[in-house]
From TrEMBL:
A Pfam entry, by short name: GNVR
Transmembrane segments: 20-40, 174-195
Assigned protein family: Belongs to the CpsC/CapA family.
Organism: Neobacillus ginsengisoli
Bilayer topology term: Multi-pass membrane protein
InterPro entries per UniProt: Bact_polysacc_biosynth/exp (IPR050445), GNVR (IPR032807), LPS_length_determ_N (IPR003856)
PANTHER family in the record: FERRIC ENTEROBACTIN TRANSPORT PROTEIN FEPE, TYROSINE-PROTEIN KINASE
Subcellular location: Cell membrane
Domain Polysaccharide chain length determinant N-terminal: 3-94
Protein's name according to its UniProt entry: Capsular polysaccharide biosynthesis protein
Length: 249
């Protein structure tokens, strides 16, 4: 016969282990907040935009074929921007203490579908440094692409700048705390049900009736130490009274 658990039993289990669930949740939230605010290094992001357009000649109208060619070249440009041929020059110009592979990890290049605008973003622990790297990478790429592919169809649309009070993009403490809250609740509830599953002790008459399927005829009350002493005292007093009555008779 399969054992089914009702919603009421689930709620009773959670109510019985509520202190454990709340404790685990509080610890998870506290640890997440402390780590996010005091241990994780803020990371800032600076972005610049490149426009891949038609060659700068004496053309007054935009040619559809040129636009399509530029769109097809953008994927190639995205790869070239993060290539050692570009990044080595950026490192040299800015005197950066890192390799091209390390600098690649800081740079993200992407563009919207069917858009000739390329977004070049750089992440660093310094907002000013991120902006310098983004602008220098855009300038070096603009100069070098003419030599690499013999084209002149890249221009800088917008430069990266640093605001007065830059805000880091990560860590995001509130998001981390919210995630920790959910994870803590899930872990607490899971542990509560796990402990309940392995707890095979019988605690009250209701559990006995459920386990054996038989009614409970009587219950032995539990007595604390003071009640036990009081009971012994009454018992001794009764014995003395009985002995006194027997002697008097």
């Amino acid at each position: 016969m399969e054992e089914t658990i009702s919603l009421q039993e689930l709620l009773q289990t959670m109510r019985k282990r509520i202190s454990l669930i709340l404790s685990i949740t509080f610890i998870a939230v506290l640890m997440s907040g402390v780590v996010s605010y005091f241990f994780l290094t803020p990371v800032y992001q600076a972005s610049t935009q490149l426009l891949v357009n038609q060659s700068k000649k004496d053309q007054t109208a935009v040619n559809y074929n040129d636009v399509q060619t530029n769109l097809q070249l953008i994927n190639t440009y995205n790869v070239i921007i993060k290539s050692p041929a570009i990044l080595e020059l950026v490192i040299k110009d800015l005197n950066l203490n890192m390799t091209a592979a390390q600098l690649t990890q800081k740079i993200t290049v992407q563009n919207e579908k069917d858009s000739q605008v390329v977004n070049l973003s750089v992440q660093d622990t310094s907002a000013a440094k991120a902006a310098k790297i983004a602008n220098e990478t855009a300038n070096v790429f603009k100069d070098q692409i003419a030599k690499i592919m013999s084209v002149d169809n890249v221009s800088i649309l917008a430069k990266a700048d640093v605001t007065e009070n830059p805000k880091p993009i990560k860590p995001r403490p509130l998001l981390n705390v919210a995630i920790a809250l959910v994870v803590g609740l899930m872990a607490g509830v899971g542990l509560a049900f796990l402990l309940e599953y392995f707890d095979t002790t019988v605690k009250n008459e209701q559990e006995i009736e459920k386990l054996l399927g038989l009614p409970v005829l009587g219950v032995i009350a539990k007595m604390d130490e003071s009640q036990l002493k009081q009971s012994k005292g009454k018992h001794a007093e009764r014995n003395v009274r009985v002995r006194g009555e027997s002697i008097g008779s």
